[in-house]
Amino acid sequence: MTTIDRTVTTVVFDLGNVLLRWDPAAVFEGRLTDTEVAEFMAAVDFPTLNHSLDAGRTWAQARPEVAERAPGHVHHMDAYVRDFARSLVGEVPGTAQVARDLLAAGIRVLGLTNWSAETFEHAPRAAPVLAEFEQILVSGTVGLAKPDPAIFHLLIRTTGIVPVQTVFIDDSPANVAAATELGFQALLFTDAPTFRDDLVARGLAIPRS
């Protein structure tokens, strides 16, 4: 029987709500009430629209459809795209240090994020640790988005990572399930101390929480 080497050589990070706190409602703080924000997001079907932007659609391409479906709210989506930086409300406590500890231990650190190509420029400004990552695959740039297995296959092809030797961390159960199906050591993110303990349990030489 062949023994599979599951020694971890690589950790792949999701970004939103793993490294960076993302709150789309924060864009409208002081501008709209909570009820008005909820009405806007329902009218434009924000989760579906946002996923399409993450998967490579531009706002210019999506805007006519939104304007037709929700003419009273399209200007709110204009504001969201324009002022996207306001939605990044700080780093998730402790995760950037986990990434730096992994880098210090000689582990490859990569990113795989569902993020619009039009707004990704704001991410490195909000989380400077991203400049230290070996590579970040941005869904909106490649026209694929998690949990589509194709984006994981693209990551494997372009980086040469071995899934069984790679920890993938994400806050979405669907994305974790997709990575698990492809053989990654996939973890559902809850908080940085738990994530750190999970990595230590896998034999990674980083400080315990």
TrEMBL record:
Lineage: superkingdom: Bacteria
Annotated NCBIfam families: HAD-SF-IA-v3 (TIGR01509)
Protein name as annotated: HAD family phosphatase
CDD domains referenced in this protein's UniProt entry, alphabetically: HAD_sEH-N_like
Matching InterPro entries: HAD-like_sf (IPR036412), HAD-SF_hydro_IA (IPR006439), HAD_sf (IPR023214), PGP-like_dom2 (IPR023198)
